[in-house]
Write a structure and sequence with these properties.
46% helix, 194 residues, alpha+beta, two-stranded antiparallel ribbon, 8 strands
């Protein structure tokens, strides 16, 4: 048994057999070698996590527009190989400029974060959600058609329209109603390119 250390709550070890006794000094060198390689792997893991961050919107935690363009291109390519359609929903919060004008951008930012959370909560793990910009969001439903997109769009609309969004302003708790406009398109029925 050779202890190789602890990495992010994971314990690594190895078990092997040898026809003859292995000297303790050889095992120590082997452990150092493996340990140094685990540190290299950890650095690559950290690098991949950092690269993922360039695709995350810092306000909503959703993917950003840069990632949207990459993912749509990939889905179009995959469609040409596997013939699986996908659906895109474009969501725009109605009259959001009035929210920012009346309550300020800090409240507007908090509301965007709350709306993004509500949208994400209604999606499958395989669905992708993006902040397109400002008060606009895009949802990609892989392996889904226009009909499925319409169902998801109606579910999102109902959730947002039915909810009282709350926020603290000075000493007073305020409530606001929001609504959204949602467009639904299916690839390849509604478009032939990304």
């Amino acid at each position: 048994y050779l202890n190789l250390g602890l990495k992010r709550n994971q314990f690594y070890f190895t078990i092997f057999s040898s026809p003859s006794e292995i000297k303790t000094e050889v095992l120590k060198h082997l452990a150092q070698f493996v340990s140094s390689h685990l540190r290299v792997i950890e650095k690559f893991d950290d690098l991949y996590r950092s690269q993922d961050l360039i695709h995350i919107d810092d306000v909503t935690g959703l993917y950003n527009q840069r990632k949207l363009h990459k993912d749509i291109s990939s889905l179009v390519e995959r469609y040409h190989q596997e013939k699986n359609p996908f659906c895109a929903l474009f969501i725009d919060i109605d009259h959001f400029k009035k929210v920012n004008d009346n309550y300020g951008h800090l409240i507007g930012t908090k509301l965007l974060e709350n709306v993004a959370h509500d949208i994400k909560a209604l999606l499958r793990d395989s669905d992708l959600s993006y902040r397109y910009g400002g008060d606009e969001f895009v949802i990609i439903l892989a392996n889904s058609d226009r009909h499925g997109g319409k169902i998801v769009g109606e579910r999102i609309l109902k959730k947002i329209v039915d909810k009282n969004y709350s926020f603290q302003m000075k000493e007073e708790k305020k409530h606001i109603k929001l609504s959204v406009s949602i467009g639904v398109a299916e690839f390849p029925s509604d478009a032939s390119t990304a």
